[in-house]
Write a structure and sequence with these properties.
This protein has one domain (about 5-100). It is about 30% helix and about 35% strand. It is built from 2 helices and 5 strands. Helix 1 packs across helix 2.
C-alpha cells in the first residue's frame, strides 16, 4: 500500500534537512538563471510518511514547466525556480509538491 492510499498517514516530517539540500543547488540555480529558467528535478523518498531522502539536480529550460507525481513511496518532481524568491521560496514550492502528493 502506498502512503497516498492511506490518507490517515499523511506527511509526518523530514529525516533530512531540506534547506541543506536546497543550499547545495543554489549556486547552480543562480548561475543558470543567466541562461534560462532554472528548475529542480528530483525525487522525494518517503517511509511511513517521513521524508527519508531527497535527490535533486538543477536543469535549465526556456520557460517554466512544473510537474509532480507519486509512484509507490516516491514523489517525482520538476519545479521552476526564481532566484529572487530565495531558498525559502523554493522550500515552500517543494513543501507544496510534497503535501499535494500525499
Amino acid at each position: 500500500m502506498s502512503i497516498k492510499d492511506d490518507k490517515t498517514r499523511g506527511f509526518k516530517g523530514w529525516n533530512v534537512d531540506p534547506f541543506t539540500e536546497l543550499q547545495k543547488a543554489w549556486k547552480a540555480i543562480n548561475e543558470g538563471a543567466l541562461l534560462g529558467v532554472p528548475h529542480i528535478v528530483g525525487r522525494i523518498y518517503l517511509k511511513n510518511g517521513v521524508v527519508s531522502k531527497l535527490d535533486m539536480n538543477v536543469i535549465l529550460h526556456e520557460k517554466e514547466k512544473e510537474l509532480s507525481f507519486m509512484e509507490g513511496d516516491m514523489i517525482y518532481f520538476v519545479i521552476p525556480v526564481r532566484p529572487e524568491d530565495g531558498i525559502e521560496g523554493l522550500y515552500m514550492k517543494l513543501d507544496k509538491v510534497l503535501r499535494d502528493a500525499i
